[in-house]
Amino acid sequence: MKVHGYGALEAGAKMVPVQFEREALRAGEVAIKISHCGVCHSDLHQVNDDWDNSLYPCVPGHEIVGKVTAVGEGVEKYSEGDVVGVGCMVNSCQQCANCKAGEEQYCTGPKGCTLTYNGPAVPDGTNSYGGYSDGIIVREEFVVRVPDALKPEEAAPILCAGITTYQPMKHWNVKMGDRVGIAGIGGLGHLAIETAKALGAHVVALTTSPEKKEMILEDLGADEVIVMSDEKALEEAAMSLDFLLSTIPYKHDINSYIPLMKKNTTICIVGNLIGFDNVDTSGMVFNRIQLAGSLIGGVEDTQEILDFYAEHGIKPDITLIAPDQINEAFERMKNENVRFRHVIDMSLLKADDGDEKIEQPVRGEVVGRDA
Predict the structure, then answer these.
(1) What single-letter DSSP state applies at residue 366?
(2) What is the C-alpha separation between 31 and 69, in angstroms, rounded?
(3) Which terminus of the chain is more solvent-facing, meaning fewer CB atoms within 10 Å of its CB: N or C?
(4) From first to last of its 371 residues, what are the pLDDT tens digits of the chain?
(5) Structural element, H or E, at residue 215
(6) DSSP 3-state of 40
(7) 218 within 8 A of 224, measured Cβ to Cβ
């Protein structure tokens, strides 16, 4: 199946039009014509090789929504014409304890989970290409159904930003009346606020941008906003939070957040994969505060959060773009000048047989299915 899209041919390169062949549909798999794909900050990190793990050519995109065009033998959940989504994974061993527990993102099989783009979690020399393209083939177990109450472009960011912020709230049992801090009010943070509010929490937004305060209160519905440069506000908020989710996607001063936590509480990191410098652990030790992390979420939880958003009328705040605007979108995202999530309208893709031809990616075996 010939596919057109946008990709980076080397680290830090501009995104360019590309074409490649997807492997033929096999038993247990679903072919999808992509209508929309969200633009995640991790896409920019991967294109720039900020995490020293990128594979090139790199065709990003793991917030994929489209329509089923064909199903392989044995597929039972989906039919041609269904509106479906694909998140951050397209494969896993399906046999380990984590996979069986519905946490495929922590697969302990030989390759780990296979990411929607940028290959297996445990590198083996193969690559995978994502949703900045007009078609994809995915095993049935990694496809989710998009509820009718969500438009395709609205559903796309939920498949990474939504599940990434929901899963830790579920894991650490955020509940009615909890005081929940959200650090970093961007693509992930704006959804975290709305999710926490729907769970009944009292939401305290933590931002370094004073100019965002009114918008965060009035448009996103946070109960409070603390500007991190306001020392008086920080002092008054000391030991007031039951849980804090940091969505900030780069190194930052974690020490300023620790005094905000009550005893026996958790700060969860979902955005920063680079690390922290000079962490002062004394406040953590004296109040038994955990500094933890969380990676996306399993397929079952991804379906759960899609249904949750549909039920509660939560809709990501998006900016639709054409595929040929992706380089501009990356610049705006880098400069924090987007509200709040770019979504690519793949119906506007101008496919051309002169697009850069790149090597065909190789899919892993379909466990438990006839290959």
Answers:
(1) -
(2) 6
(3) C
(4) 899 999 999 999 999 999 999 999 999 999 999 999 999 999 999 999 999 999 999 999 999 999 999 999 999 999 999 999 999 999 999 999 999 999 999 999 999 999 999 999 998 889 999 999 999 999 999 999 999 999 999 999 999 999 999 999 999 999 999 999 999 999 999 999 999 999 999 999 999 999 999 999 999 999 999 999 999 999 999 999 999 999 999 899 999 999 999 999 999 999 888 899 999 999 999 999 999 999 999 999 999 999 999 999 999 999 999 999 999 999 999 888 888 999 999 999 999 988 999 988 877 665 554 33
(5) helix 213-218
(6) coil
(7) no
Q: Which two tokens stand for residue 115?
A: 């990411």
The residue ranges of every structural domain in the chain are: 2-160+297-357, 162-293
**Considering only CA atoms, which of 330, 368, 268, 312 is closest in space to residue 154?**
312
Among candidates 98, 97, 92, 96, which has minimal Cα distance to 111? Answer: 92
Cα distance between residue 120 and residue 114, in whole Å: 4
Torsion of CA 52, 57, 63, 68, to 10 degrees: -150
CA distance 360 to 357: 9
2-160+297-357 fold: Quinone Oxidoreductase; Chain A, domain 1 (3.90.180)
- The H or E element containing residue 151 is none
Dist CA 111 CA 161 (whole Å): 24
Q: Which residue has the tokens 């078609």?
A: 135
